[in-house]
Design goal:
Blueprint: E1 7-10, H1 14-25, E2 30-34, H2 41-45, E3 49-52, H3 61-65, E4 72-75, H4 87-98, E5 103-109, H5 118-121, E6 124-125, H6 136-152, E7 158-163, E8 165-167, H7 181-185, E9 191-192, E10 198-199, E11 201-203, H8 204-217, E12 222-226, E13 232-233, H9 234-244, E14 252-253, E15 269-270, H10 273-279, H11 288-299, H12 354-357, E16 365-370, E17 381-386, E18 389-393, E19 396-400, E20 405-406, E21 411-414, E22 418-423
Parallel strand pairs: 1-2, 1-4, 2-3, 4-5, 5-7, 6-15, 7-12, 8-11, 9-14
Antiparallel strand pairs: 10-13, 16-22, 17-20, 17-22, 18-19, 18-21
Helix pairs in contact: 1-8, 4-6
């Protein structure tokens, strides 16, 4: 991807770090700009150009953005206390225009839609929904957005992303995991107003894919709301994650009795149709389930997944789903009028392709039986159905609970007799 324009990230926190990791892995020139340079050392080791940058000092914008040909500039600074709201991002966008940037991207927030009220949070919100101009916190973000749009009139291609809640695994020594699971573990997570508020979230790797796609494909003066395909009531997510982590269900709390800005509820049900349509994307982590399983894998030793920018195939979660208890589906009694199945059924599902076993076309899926101490053929991806096995994933050995997924080209060794589902191209 050497023809990809260079990317400058202003304010390199959690999102900027994961974006930089993805770009550098694809051989793209990346400049990361922030005040706390020690936090950027892991990115410098990966080949990033590290640049000291203080957004409150106007003379630093030019040097931060200069010297690169038609860069994409990503602005990820939440606020600059020493300047009027909107001033820092206006200066950044103006400097980007003067530097000949191919795009200027501002990472905004769905907080622009205001505080949550139960009567509203179940309603779908999109780019055309009303914003909360009477909400002081929302107005701060709206001031930044207005500054970006004013500079767009000069011909600079701008993109505004209104982000839902971001979650994901630990990225490096300076950027710990984000999301609800740590607060659930420490007993700090609460279900507000019975958990009835809807929330939208986005897994960090899908957010990076969206940023990268928008940088190249979004039309001038674009705006997108960013959330996954499954915004849901807080109780659904909180109860699922607590059960998944084998922890008590979080307690209820009354938002009317809460105090402090961190207890302001800003849940919204974001509709992501526009970004998927205009950017040609589908999400690899469409709900919290896929995202939380990916965090499981990293917590248990797997490396961060490679971020596929295309939609060819989502990454296989490398191992380590916590086994969930699912109630069995009720079995309908047989109808007296149904004729018995032909004698050839049922067939034994051997190591033949399951599509062929069922008299259909090949599906690239087969069963694989391993005896204790034997090793599966390297190549296909596997899912452990029964027994006990371990796998070598990205150079690290992990033990596989039942229903763990293992990416293609990993070694899988049966510790006792095991049954696996092998997935390969048909």
């Amino acid at each position: 991807m050497s023809d990809h324009p260079p990317v400058i990230i202003l304010g390199c926190g959690y999102v900027g770090t994961r974006l930089a990791q993805s770009l550098l892995a694809d051989g793209i020139t990346v400049r990361v700009c922030a005040r706390r340079l020690p936090m950027l050392e892991p990115l410098a080791a990966l080949g990033a150009d590290v640049h000291y940058f203080d957004a409150s000092r106007p003379h630093q914008f030019g040097p931060a953005l200069g010297g690169l040909i038609r860069p994409v500039v990503v602005y990820s600074i939440p606020g600059v206390p020493d300047l009027p709201q909107g001033e820092a991002v206006r200066r950044a966008a103006t400097a980007a225009s003067r530097a000949g940037a191919s795009a200027f991207m501002y990472l905004s927030s769905s907080a622009v839609y205001g505080r949550s009220e139960l009567v509203f949070t179940s309603e779908w919100v999109d780019e055309d929904s009303s914003v909360a101009v009477s909400d002081a916190d929302a107005l701060l973000r709206l001031s930044d957005e207005a500054a970006v749009q004013s500079v767009a009139q000069s011909g600079l291609r701008t993109v505004i992303l209104r982000l839902g809640a971001i979650y994901g695994p630990t990225l490096d020594a300076f950027h710990p995991a984000r999301g609800a699971r740590q607060r659930i573990r420490t007993g700090q997570y609460k279900l507000w107003d019975g958990g009835k508020h809807f929330f939208s979230r986005i897994y960090i790797d899908d957010l990076v894919r969206i940023i990268r796609a928008a940088a190249l494909k979004a039309p001038p003066n674009s705006m997108y709301v960013v959330g996954d395909d499954h915004p849901c009531p807080q109780r659904e997510y909180g109860e699922w994650l607590a059960q998944h982590l084998k922890l008590p269900v979080p307690p209820d709390a009354d938002s009317a009795k809460a105090s402090g800005p961190r207890n302001i509820i800003r849940g919204r049900r974001l509709r992501n149709d526009k970004l998927k349509r205009e950017l040609g994307l589908s999400l690899h982590y469409p709900s919290y389930r896929e995202g939380e399983l990916a965090i499981d894998a990293v917590e248990q030793g797997a490396k961060l997944a490679a971020i596929s920018v295309s939609d060819a195939s989502p990454p296989v979660v490398a191992a380590v789903a916590v086994e969930e208890t699912v109630a069995p589906a009720p079995v309908e009694p047989a109808q007296a009028s149904v004729e018995p199945a032909p004698a050839k059924w049922p067939k034994v599902a051997s190591e033949e392709d399951l599509g062929l076993v069922l008299g259909q076309s090949a599906r690239g899926v087969r069963l694989c039986k391993l005896t204790a101490g034997s090793e599966a053929i390297v190549g296909p991806a596997y899912v452990l159905l029964q027994g006990s096995a371990s796998a070598v994933i990205a150079g690290q050995t992990v033990r596989l609970p039942a229903l763990s997924a293992v990416p293609a080209h990993s070694r899988v060794l049966a510790e006792e007799d095991a049954l696996l589902l092998a997935l390969s191209d048909p």
